[in-house]
């Protein structure tokens, strides 16, 4: 069972992003404030869950959360400011959209740019440890997957309905055959010389 909170004195929001390692599409981030007694047996790091489980939990989170917000930064801005800064910006945008501002922020990972004067803690693999981060990971992942499905309908060659923009063999081979789209991140190495190094999801 995931931990309900990092500290119990301040209103705590969990933050996570999805799509940092992709070759195409935006990076999405979510911020979630959960009730301290929130529990669900399926709640976990979104990467450890099946798509149907993520969709089920998304509905539960959206219904039960005190508040939540999702934001994104597109590929053009990623190319301008770099993916790390874009990930932090997406998290800040999500935090800004929350109906209730948190007093403490829990962030998945080991780095974060401070959001105003609100204290924060970076938790490596926090999406597998804390409920609010896990909830944020599920929202960021499902909202981004929906977006990539829409792009897939326009650019079906790349398999974005399956790989969501990650560098799979199919994605790289489609890049070689069809070239880049306006949604590809030009600052990323889109076509390494050795396709054997690619991974499949």
From TrEMBL:
Its cofactor is Mn(2+); Mg(2+). The keyword Transferase does not apply. Manganese or magnesium. Binds 1 divalent metal ion per monomer in the absence of substrate. May bind a second metal ion after substrate binding. One of its GO terms (cellular component) is ribonuclease H2 complex. Endonuclease that specifically degrades the RNA of RNA-DNA hybrids. Belongs to the RNase HII family. This is Ribonuclease HII. It comes from Chitinophaga terrae (ex Kim and Jung 2007).
């Amino acid at each position: 069972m995931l931990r309900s909170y990092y500290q119990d004195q301040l209103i705590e929001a969990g933050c996570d992003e999805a799509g940092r390692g992709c070759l195409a599409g935006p990076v999405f981030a979510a911020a979630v404030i959960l009730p301290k007694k929130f529990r669900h047996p399926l709640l976990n790091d979104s990467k450890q869950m099946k798509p149907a489980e993520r969709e089920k939990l998304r509905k539960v989170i959206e219904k039960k959360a005190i508040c939540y917000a999702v934001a994104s930064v597109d590929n053009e801005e990623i190319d301008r400011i770099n993916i790390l800064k874009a990930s932090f910006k997406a998290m800040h945008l999500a935090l800004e959209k929350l109906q209730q501002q948190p007093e403490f922020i829990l962030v998945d990972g080991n780095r974060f740019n401070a959001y105003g004067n609100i204290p924060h803690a970076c938790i490596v693999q926090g999406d597998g440890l804390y409920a609010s981060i896990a909830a944020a990971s599920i929202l960021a992942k499902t909202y981004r997957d929906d977006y990539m499905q829409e792009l897939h309908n326009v650019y079906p060659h790349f398999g974005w309905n399956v790989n969501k923009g990650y560098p799979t063999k199919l994605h790289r081979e489609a890049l070689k055959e069809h070239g880049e789209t306006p949604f590809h991140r030009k600052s990323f190495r889109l076509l390494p010389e050795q396709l054997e190094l690619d991974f499949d999801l």
